[in-house]
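__Record contents__

***
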Amino acid sequence: MVKNTKGGKGAKSMARKNTNLPKSEQLVLPTESNEMFACVTKLFGNGRCEVHTNNNATLKARIPGKFRGRNKRSNIVSMYSIVLVGVYDFTSAADSCDILYIYDDQDLEQIRYLPGIDISDLIRMKMSYSYSTGGSGAVNDDVLFTNDLEEEKIQALNEINPANSINSFKLEETEQEIDIDDI
């Protein structure tokens, strides 16, 4: 038996039987007609989630045991992650599926440039969620912050009240003009 030289904390969890196998270098793509790319839109809990597929269908997906518990370290199902799903063909309702594979960002870059595969809608959905605030999914890029004042606005302000120009003001007690640019 191997001597425990590491100590008490975490020694059992570091055993070889508990480590994950290294991820294969081969990219997993859909091979059958009932497999397709999808984006996770809702997490229900208890191993269930809702996915939005590439052909604008919303399905209820089951998260298998290999993506839960101890094995989820490198493949976590989270909101707006891109997954490969297999749609159930043995049920009468075609709104259920299984998650087969979870893609990370490196895999998505490889898939993006493959001919014949279009997942741009799913990537756009993922990016809009990641850039939004509060997780609402909408990107608010119509606000522009600037310190520049247009010349017309400056002249209009000076015409309204010439004593209070933008770059200088007067102290009433000392009657001395102070230039803000000099400060």
